[in-house]
Structures are given as structure tokens and as C-alpha cells.
Amino acid sequence: MMSVSKKVASANNKFLIALLISFLILSVAVCFCISYFREKYLIMQFKKEYITYNQALTITALDMFGDTGCYYSTDKNVKNNYANCDKFYKRFATNLNVRKYCKKDALSDGCVPVYKSYTAEARCAGYSESMMNRFNQAFVMADSSNLIVYNYPTGVQKPMFAIDVNGNAKPNKSGYDLFSMVIMRNKSGDYYFYPNITYCLPDEKGGYKYLTDIFKE
């Protein structure tokens, strides 16, 4: 027959095991909630930033009388144009609420964070680690989000930039808080952003890739 002390010890062990299981379940639930709400927050931030940049693009095009000189063309009769990207970005920045500007050395000067991964594709070298950290121009906005101008070869700006919707805060991953904005111009002369919002950025598992994925949320 089990002694009273053994029964008490057994009951205590069962209680501790049940308590541990409850704690583990609670921990998993809390982690899930944090992850879920962080994802929803980042989606909301992207939508906000997208509207801001889309408006700035429209205003900048008007400021430049409809020809920014910085776009990829969808019209087979009109070539891609990078000739005035420097002028475009200067004007574009005046239509945004910029708090800080880094002409180079964006990482060391605090204009960009360290990202989980960088592109390794030669055709997308402007988003490589060295370009992002040392050579690309970068802006920090009043809301702490970042804009990083695609720059390749060094000193040659292109109609493409990355935005980090929550600045230096994590997760610092493509498709989560880091997105690519490619400036397009159609046959009618209208400007818009390419639907692939991770173009030339690393393909992170579980990240958002297209505008339609974001705006259906």
C-alpha cells in the first residue's frame, strides 16, 4: 500500500507536470500571438508607406512635367530611362518627410540595419550587402522607415529602391518589412510601381511577394 508521503509526492509531481505543460502551451500561444500581430502591423505599415510613396511618385512626375527620366518602360517603342535618376530622387525626396540622408556608408551612419540576407544574383547587384551597406544612398523618414536607392554600378542610380517599413526594428527580412519598389511607366505615360514587391531581393520563406497578396489582407 502506498504511504501518505508517496501519495503526496506523486500528486505534487503530477501537479508540476501539469503546470509545466500549461506553461509550455501558454508560451506557444503568446509567441503565436506576438508573431501574428507583428505580421499584421507590418502589413498595415506597408500599406501606409505604399500610399505615401505612390502619392510622392505622382507629385514628382507632375513636378517634372510628366518626364522623370527615371523609369522602366512597358512601351516597346519607349526605352527604359535612367538618365535623370539623380535629379528624380532629389525631387522625390522633397515630396517625402525625410529626417536623415546618407549619401554613402548607410549602415555605419545608421540609415539602414543589418538584414537577414542579401541578394547574391549578379543582375541584382544593387541590393548586394556591400551596395546596401556602403554605396547606396539611403534616407530615414520621420516615421523611422527607410528608403534605399538601388545603385549599380556605383554612382549610377536606377528606377528602383527598397523600403524598410519599420526602419531598424526587426525582422529585417525581405517580404516581411523590407520591400522593393520598381518605378514603371506605361504606354500612356502614367507612372506606377511594379506588382512584384520583392523584385531583386532575396526570396525569404513565408514573406509577401506581390502587391495583391498584401492588399487582400
- CA-atom Rg in angstroms: 24 Å
Our count of helices gives 4
Q: Tell me the span between the first and last alpha carbons.
A: 62 Å
Number of strands: 7
- Write the H/E string, N to C: HEHEHEEEEEH
Q: Which class of secondary structure composition applies to the elements?
A: alpha+beta
Shape verdict: globular
What percentage of residues falls in helices of 4 or more residues? 25-40%
Major sheet: size, sense and barrel closure? 7 strands, mixed
**Residue share in β-strands:** 15-25%
Low-confidence stretches: 26-34
Average pLDDT for all residues = 87
Characterization of the model:
This protein has four helices and seven strands; from the N terminus they run αβαβαβββββα. Strands 1, 2, 3, 4, 5, 6 and 7 form a seven-stranded mixed sheet that branches. It has helices spanning 4-63, 85-94, 129-135, 211-215; strands spanning 72-73, 98-102, 138-141, 146-151, 157-164, 178-185, 191-193. The longest helix has 60 residues, at 4-63. Helix content is 38%, strand content 17%. Helix 1 crosses helix 2.
